[in-house]
């Protein structure tokens, strides 16, 4: 099994209102490797947001994060700098620092919100590329994320169209013939991480093509990247340690106070005798 | 920028005591693409563990997890099956389900512990391949991991030799000339995720070659994958919600009880008058 990835040359600087699917199509058309059935185009969310005009002025950055936040998971203020990092669940269900609000590679004085609906953005691009090239092309929209217990960041999928986001091996068997019961590789995330290695933040190349996993490409009706985030009852880390501890402290205090009060009340006559 | 990845054919089933570096070298030698300076060989941790004889009998699985555990982060029992998932920090600092103890693709009745020191394992393989081929080859050892807030699993790096695990962009600037202050892509993790896409759990191919990021390959003295896990004071998620809540409840109860007792005591004479 062989896979090739490359950064797609010739995407211009994107501004609000640009027809992103056309610009990516133009770059693909100029690429001597062409477009083949099963190619996966990985698009950095930043240019999707720019095309959608998701700019807000930098003064509003904290307000913008708040507006994008469904739920604060954890926040931590750096005592040295006074700046606060907020890990939040955003309206897409993604748990991410600063709700994905981005201040790098944006026009001076502005920050950028995530696309409104990255799965829909991916679908629009995929539909346009499929129509233009007559090829079954998949599209992923990627964003850079930190991780709970690992330093640094990796690119992960926030939008998907025509790509299987999970490679479901749960019905298959290992080489010993035993069922692979719990294995559900998130191939959409792995593809976005792979693509980051050829796009690169400092190079300014925002789109990559992945060739060699055509088996993961299919109908535009396949479930999107919205199916990746795990929130709700199955989320064992729905708040940071300090926040969960504070919840527990409050509940414990109330319970302890009530019992302490009763005990103190009960023993008081003895003590005052 | 172009990157190629492929699964390396011809690695036999590995058993305890096998010379893994020789077997990978033999497979590389038979590969018509050869070995070039800057190639990165990604080795599934499972075969490193097998070569190192890290088998324990399946009956001891829970004991094995306990022995590999430095600290329980969260545990959750499935009420339907009665089985408990334990997310723990293991002796390598990695936060992972079941301490990385693995029951798939292992001989019947056995489970497999992680390699003793995956950075050292990577270094031994890299040194042997460099000596054999006279090429500057990097080696990563990968393992499959779940994530806090995302379904499914991705492959990440647990061992590294001769590969820059982080691509440090913190000194560089974005296309607008502003410093990329917080960007530290964990390229070792991204390379392992990329490699998983050509190895595949169900195919039984445990080694991949990545070609095209020679800039990430260097001295065998580069910091290993042991530098990736983030634990200690900077870990905002050092326990699961329920565990952190319980810690807080205990502390809150004690505090509330003391204050409640005092209040109850103080008011008792009035109430009994």
From TrEMBL, chains A, B:
Residues 11-212 form the Coenzyme F420:L-glutamate ligase-like domain. InterPro entries: F420-0_g-glutamyl_ligase, F420-0_gamma-glut_ligase-dom. Pfam families: F420_ligase (PF01996). It comes from the Bacteria. Keywords: GTP-binding, Ligase, Magnesium, Manganese, Metal-binding, Nucleotide-binding, Potassium. This is Coenzyme F420:L-glutamate ligase-like domain-containing protein.
């Amino acid at each position: 099994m062989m896979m090739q990835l490359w950064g797609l040359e010739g995407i211009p600087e994107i501004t609000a209102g640009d027809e992103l699917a056309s610009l990516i199509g133009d770059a693909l058309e100029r690429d001597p490797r062409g477009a083949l059935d099963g190619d996966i185009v990985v698009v950095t969310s930043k240019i999707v947001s720019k095309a959608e005009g998701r700019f807000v002025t930098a003064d509003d950055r904290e307000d913008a994060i708040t507006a994008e936040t469904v739920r604060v998971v954890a926040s931590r203020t750096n005592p040295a700098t006074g700046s606060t990092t907020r890990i939040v669940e955003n309206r897409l269900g993604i748990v991410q620092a600063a709700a994905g609000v981005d201040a790098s590679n944006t026009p001076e004085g502005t920050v950028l919100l995530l696309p409104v609906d990255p799965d829909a953005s991916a679908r629009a691009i995929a539909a346009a590329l499929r129509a233009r090239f007559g090829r079954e092309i998949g599209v992923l929209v990627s964003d850079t994320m930190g991780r709970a217990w690992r330093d640094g960041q990796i690119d992960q999928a926030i939008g998907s169209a025509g790509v299987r986001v999970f490679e479901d091996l749960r019905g298959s068997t290992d080489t010993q013939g035993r069922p692979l019961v719990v294995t559900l590789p998130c191939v959409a995330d792995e593809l976005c991480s792979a693509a980051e290695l050829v796009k690169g933040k400092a190079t300014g190349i925002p789109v990559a093509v992945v060739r060699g996993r055509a088996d993961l490409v299919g109908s535009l009706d396949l479930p999107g990247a919205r199916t990746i985030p795990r929130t709700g009852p199955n989320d064992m880390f729905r708040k940071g340690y300090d926040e969960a501890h504070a919840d527990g402290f409050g509940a414990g205090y109330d319970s302890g106070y009530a019992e302490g009060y009763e005990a103190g009340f009960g023993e008081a006559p003895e003590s005052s005798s």
